[in-house]
Amino acid sequence: MKIDCTNLPCPEPVIKTKKTLESLAEDSVLEVVVNSHSSKENVTRFAKNAGYTVSDEVLDDGITKITIVKGYECSIATNENDSELLNKTLFLKDDSIGDYELGSKLMVGFLKSILELPKLPKNIICVNKAVFLTTAPADSDVIAILKTFEQNGVQIYSCGVCLNFYKVEDELKVGVIGNAFDSVDMMLNSEGTITL
Amino acid sequence: MIGALSCDDKNVLVGIQGSDDASVYWMDENRALVQTVDYITPVVDDPYMYGQIAAANSLSDIFAMGADVATALNLVSFDGCHHGPEVLAEILQGGQSKVIECGGVIVGGHTIEAPEMTYGLSVSGFVHPKKFYRNNTPRVGDVLILTKPLGMGILTTAIKADLLDIKNIEKTANILAQLNYQASLIMREFDVSACTDVTGFGLAGHAYEMSTDRFTLEFDFNSIPMISEAIEFANMGIIPAGTYHNMDYIKDKVEMKREIQDDILFYDAQTSGGLLIAVSQAHADKLLLRLKDAGYEYSAIIADVKSFGGKSLVLR
Same domain for B263 and B297? Predict the structure, then answer.
């Protein structure tokens, strides 16, 4: 949440900051933009006195951005959830999308496209034949793609039962072995699950 | 800007040079003419109270010189679009009540219509040419007495923000409207070496005018009278820009003898503040008692005058 208190006469910046903070939940982050020394001092005093964590950053044109965390933490919480990842799970149950050779090409194509997006899903779960994706040859396109997901912080789980069933448990190239409980927990706790 | 003006006239005993409270113009061996002018924007909602406070603020400089008020002229800038004439009448009645209280008379004035409301007085008075008090003539060994508490800048800002309850608004307004008249009369009976009134530059700024790098004024921070609600609001960040300007301007003239968690009130811009009186140690306690008896209940001895030791102001 951000409020603009530039060019406001004293004591309006403090009053506006106070009212906005009162309407926010605990641990919320409020950014207050000011452009005078006295406003910056006053808003900082107010927030510190209320016990909140305060930091400020001087921007261009004499503008200062004051960041207030409505809570009693020692460090500033970031404004976004879990950096660049979406709170979504990608649930794969096959190593292709549809039949024939086209199916394999489609799966690789879809995974590659997801990498182009600004935000990636938090988790990828592979069950049944999808474990062939995570156990593909080391130099294959799909392993390279999945490794890129991993490097960007995406958690990749391959169903242990499935790995054993298809006897590829020693071929896992990317991610970790998951289990049904964790998989279901992940899916229920994400904002949405996508099945290809 | 002011420095570009000059008044080289042999009758001007106190003029623009130096930053004294009022001008002093020699008339004859018994009398000198004292003049001052000041006006302010509203600090409270009640027009009569505002008139009283603005008048007290304007009259104060006469008292700081140890002079007597003779006449006053009203200076009004009135927002007639948003306020009816009865509001103006109340402001002027408030002002007049204070002029009468100190034996003066309002002899005229001037009003203009303008969006920003201001009111104050141009005041003329008389003083003996050899018996007025400059603001920069304390003596080493003197002590300083302050007759009104600090915090008015912060409290008037809190009033603007609707953060003060009616009881505290009244308490603040009464302190603001209190004339320095009786204090001025009383101090003349004692061995006073210098006097100024504490207004827009805060205690720090006006004390600096008293010391001007020729004396060191050492303040006992805990002895300085302050309104406790002002300290609370200062913590909340209800501090006027003027106070920060004062701090920026004066801070490097101040030496801190100990860590003081929050010294912002030392710089708080006052309206209609008290007199800062430099008096001999021998007379200080008696003067203090007389001031308190006369209704200046917050009066206190707050500093020692020492010879210049590197910084003009010291906080201990």
Answer: yes
